[in-house]
From TrEMBL:
Keyword line: DNA-binding, Transcription, Transcription regulation
Protein name: LysR family transcriptional regulator
Family: Belongs to the LysR transcriptional regulatory family.
Transmembrane segments: none
InterPro entries, A to Z: LysR-type_TF_proteobact-type, LysR_HTH_N, LysR_subst-bd, WH-like_DNA-bd_sf, WH_DNA-bd_sf
């Protein structure tokens, strides 16, 4: 039989719908949750997986009581099926019209508020046919279980299976309002900061910075052990003149330029964790992801 005829026969007989079911089950690690997503019963999902296994002659899932896990063959197949389905979805989206493209960005709250919210309009002007959905949380999302296309993450950029591009260095230094600095006759030495309220004093960045500044025992325990969640909140408190915050200067250039925040010392520190753009390696060729990657790396060239 000619190769062309064999390929045609396979395309007619191969259970393509079972691939879609397999991808969902592999992503969720559950036949039940895959069925919920696809509007199918658990029995129907199990049937489709069995049909695919019989067609391929391979066991794709190891069935255990109340749990299924991918077999070695399933582990090899899953990323390739996910990439193939993503490319098909993108092709269909292109045919329907670029106006239907949607890019779901997951970001840390501070990066979203201090940078994305101020610049995402430029991305929209350059790519008017890509609608943006932005969601925020401190959690490190699992792309296999979440709908996000890309994520802005804080860390080392070493997440398995993800393409990662550093977009902003997370240097940090103390900042306060100019008026608060004037209230003690100016901040002339690092020790002068300890005469003022320290915001989020348990933040490990404080000890790192004071140690680099030559103060090994700043006695930070005497300050309230507040944990306010984001740099943005700490910065708001600092701008209100209620204390000194440890912040990333890259996030607050506008506030520094406007005189709302004051960085009294040039000394900045970095603990090795920066902001990264991350997305599944097998989706690197998706047009909307490429567009966002190219835009953000151009918009922040000095941070890379």
């Amino acid at each position: 039989m000619h190769k062309e005829n064999l390929a045609l026969k396979m395309s007619r007989n191969f259970p393509l719908n079972a691939l879609r079911v397999f991808e969902a089950a592999a992503r969720h690690g559950s036949f039940t949750r895959a069925g919920d997503e696809l509007g199918m019963t658990q029995t129907a999902v199990s049937y489709q997986i069995k049909l695919l296994e019989e067609t391929l002659g391979e066991t794709l899932f190891l069935r255990q009581p109340r749990q299924v896990t991918l077999s070695e063959a399933g582990e090899r197949l899953a990323p390739k099926v996910a990439e193939g389905l993503a490319r098909l979805a993108e092709a269909v989206s292109d045919l329907r019209g670029a106006s239907e493209q949607k890019l779901h960005i997951h970001s840390t709250p501070t990066f979203a508020l201090q940078w994305l919210s101020r610049t995402i309009g430029d991305f929209q002007l350059k790519h008017p046919n890509i609608a943006v959905r932005l969601s925020t949380s401190q959690d490190v999302i699992d792309f296999a279980k979440e709908e996000a296309d890309v994520a802005i993450r804080w860390g080392m950029g070493d997440w398995p299976g993800l393409a990662c591009h550093r977009v902003m260095r997370m240097d940090f230094a103390p900042m306060l309002s100019p008026k608060l600095a004037e209230s003690i006759g100016g901040v002339k030495a690092p020790a002068d900061l300890l005469k003022l309220p320290i915001i989020s004093a348990r933040d490990i960045w404080w000890r790192t910075w004071f140690s680099a500044a030559g103060i090994d025992n700043p006695n930070l325990e005497r300050f309230p052990p507040n944990e306010l969640g984001t740099q943005t909140i700490d910065a708001q408190i600092a701008m209100a003149g209620q204390g000194v915050a440890i912040l990333s200067p890259g996030h607050f250039r506008s506030e520094i330029a406007a005189g709302q925040l004051y960085q009294p010392f040039d000394l900045t520190c970095n603990d090795g964790r920066d902001y990264w753009l991350a997305y599944p390696e097998n989706r690197r060729n998706i047009q909307k992801i490429r567009a966002f990657r190219d835009w953000i790396l151009t918009a922040l060239p000095q941070e890379v």
